[in-house]
Amino acid sequence: MPLYQYDHQIRVRYQETDQMGVVYHANYFSYFEMARTEALRSLGKSYRDLEESGCFLVVNKAECSFKKPAKYDDLITVRTLVERITHVKIEHKYEVYRGEELLAVGKTVLVAVDRDGRIIRIPQELVP
Asked: How confident is the prediction for the chain on average, in pLDDT?
């Protein structure tokens, strides 16, 4: 059971696709970041506020499994699920849908660091 879930819709742009009109695989990681940022914003927080307070969330691990291709002009939904929060990291799972059709599944692990790159505790306001 996820700690938090948020759905973010994105319209696939032409520049995100290859010559066959299929989303280039690396763009899924940008979609994950957009959805993760908006999920945080939906909670009344922002990355800007975190960074101004001296906390930076850096990607420690990222992966994606592709099931079916997203294509130019598709309206896709990126479901962001916060699966686990420890004292120093946040684990997200992502599900990318076109309607009800599952296109991709991904995961990221974010680690909290200070301005000098040293690992720090996750701010308490991010812990549900």
From this structure: 96
